[in-house]
Specification:
Bound molecules: zinc ion
Structural class: alpha+beta
CATH class of the largest domain: Alpha Beta
Strand content: 25-35%
Distance between the termini: 36 Å
Largest sheet: 12 strands, mixed
CATH architecture of the largest domain: 2-Layer Sandwich
CATH superfamily of the largest domain: Bira Bifunctional Protein, Domain 2
Helix content: 25-40%
Number of strands: 26
CATH topology of the largest domain: BirA Bifunctional Protein, domain 2
Shape: globular
Length: 508
């Protein structure tokens, strides 16, 4: 009988997935809750992941013709009111600035004063404030397309928050573009969705399903919303990025007009698209294990932990000299276009403590350097994707190649296991009872990990979607692209005719 293996993270994923998630973040020292309710402090190891995401995506945006700019964090309430559906969608989660000053309250404290004539909304998204600028910038078809991206922070007043997944303030990028025609704007919307899915798979090792949102999940004010959805290890879906085709809605409310090629004035067509620090939550939940964080090498803050081991001063001098030589040898290496970084860990801790520290932080490779390695001109290397005790002796002359190739190999492995996990937990369901069983845990009081992606028929009626959501907390994650989903069938809820399968799942 298998003995219960001790794990670095308790509880395990199986025992309590959501607590496991919090503990992985804590053990890897990625972020913590702040005293400001609902807001997080992103710590250096977590922020470095975000900076990597930012740097890679920024390059991809540039390569597709976009330029960065920055717009105010405050949006006048009157701007917001211009797009009715947009207001309704965000009204319940706005932070509003109503005063501009503090005054002595006469009791040793301060009171707010200087009430503003018009309140400002702290941006929950920037369509309206950016639209106001675009209205000034766009006059002629010659000004189009206008392709702008902003890196910023966003505030959405969430009551129930979770680090990286849902916080009152978070970091993101928002692309905003203006086009001459329906077609141009639609091409842009789909192009940026492709950029996101390409990024998710190539860098985050996160396989995604691309598709369109149903009316109920559409961005407030958009004509259509496209998304990438990924599967977490608790078999729930996480929306990892969205791209919105805004039609002429925001152009009309913001007054973005231009003289077209025929000399007539018409409203422009706009898009917006974004990903956020939520992607870090996706990374954690898709790849990590019961020993802590597992990072795809291409977004890891560092790739190699160098752990010198010695017992006395005599050994120390020789080992450190050798270890620094290796550090130097690894400098300037690249995994494709990604620079490989090492962390030199010579802290006064046992080698086991240092090893576990880096295992929990998800560093891809650990290199131990002891006296025997010095004399043997080799090192012991351990991979994060293998058992902690599984170490391989690598000769120094082979180390450079080994590191680069192993990191590339790990990047592929992480993607492949996520793909395999998703395909194991994605099933076609055509029977209503089977569908309901699929999403009903055996232990209702303390639900075990269950469900997955159900690829089922839907008639297109909101009522069926709504009923399933009420019954099971399961939603249509997207109407997926791809011919393989198009076929005649019967709606999983009402039995009426359906022309396409959609992706159902529980979600974050
Ligand atoms: Zn139906």
């Amino acid at each position: 009988m298998a003995k219960n293996k001790k794990t670095a993270i308790e509880p395990t994923r199986e025992d309590n997935y959501s607590e496991w998630y919090q503990q992985v973040i804590k053990a890897a020292d990625l972020a913590e809750n702040s005293d400001v309710r609902g807001c997080m402090v992103i710590k250096p190891w977590g922020y470095a992941i975000w900076e990597n995401i930012q740097r890679i995506l920024d390059t991809m945006f540039r390569e597709t013709g976009h330029k960065n700019a920055y717009f105010p964090i405050f949006i006048p309430k009157s701007y917001f009111e211009k797009e009715a559906e947009h207001v309704e969608g965000f009204a319940k989660e706005c932070a509003i600035v109503t005063h501009s000053r503090l005054e002595n309250d006469g009791h040793g404290g301060l009171k707010v004063a200087g009430e503003l004539t018009e309140p400002y909304i702290v941006r929950p998204t920037s369509e309206t404030i950016i639209g106001a600028s675009f209205a000034k910038w766009v006059n002629s078809y010659r000004d189009l397309p206008l392709l702008i991206n902003q890196w910023a922070n966003i505030v959405r007043w969430e009551m129930r928050t979770r680090l990286f997944l849902r916080t009152a303030e978070f970091l993101w990028q928002e692309g905003h573009t203006v086009h001459e025609s329906y077609d141009d704007a639609m091409v842009e919307t789909r192009k940026m969705l492709d950029v996101y899915s390409d990024f998710a798979e190539r860098y985050l090792a996160l396989p995604v399903i691309k598709g369109e949102k149903t009316d109920s999940e559409r961005f407030p004010g958009a004509v259509s919303t496209y998304c990438i959805e990924s599967m977490m290890q608790d078999k729930k879906a996480l929306q990892s990025g969205t791209s919105h085709f805004l039609g002429q809605n925001f152009a009309k409310s913001s007054g973005i007009k231009f003289q077209n090629r025929a000399g007539e004035i018409e409203h422009a067509w706009t898009t917006s698209w974004g990903v956020s620090t939520r992607l870090i939550g996706a990374l954690i939940m898709a790849h990590s294990d019961d020993n802590g964080l597992v990072l795809p090498p291409k977004v890891a803050p560092a790739h190699v932990a160098l752990i010198p081991i010695y017992r006395n001063d005599e050994e120390k001098a020789a080992v450190l000299e050798f270890a620094h030589k290796i550090e130097l040898q690894l400098k300037g290496l690249y995994l494709d276009e990604i620079k490989i970084y090492s962390e030199f860990d010579d802290r006064d801790l046992t080698s086991s403590e240092r090893n576990w520290y880096w295992i929990k932080k998800g560093i891809p490779l650990r290199i131990e350097i002891g006296p025997r390695d010095v004399s043997g001109n080799s090192v012991m290397v351990a991979r994060r994707d293998k058992d902690g005790r599984d170490k391989e002796s690598i000769a120094i002359e082979d180390l450079t190649n080994y590191v680069v190739q192993t990191l590339a190999n790990m990047q592929d492995n992480i993607l492949n296991s996520a793909l395999e996990f998703r395909s194991q937990n994605t099933i076609k369901i055509d029977d209503t009872k089977q569908f309901y069983d699929f999403y009903t845990p055996r232990n209702v009081a303390q639900p075990e990990i269950h469900g997955g992606f159900a690829v089922s028929h839907w008639c297109g009626e909101s009522a069926c979607e709504e009923q399933i959501k009420t019954d099971l907390k399961v939603t249509i994650r997207c109407i997926p692209f791809g011919d393989e989903y198009i076929e005649e069938g019967e709606c999983i809820k009402c039995g009426k005719v359906s022309h396409k399968r959609v992706i159902f799942a529980k979600s974050y």
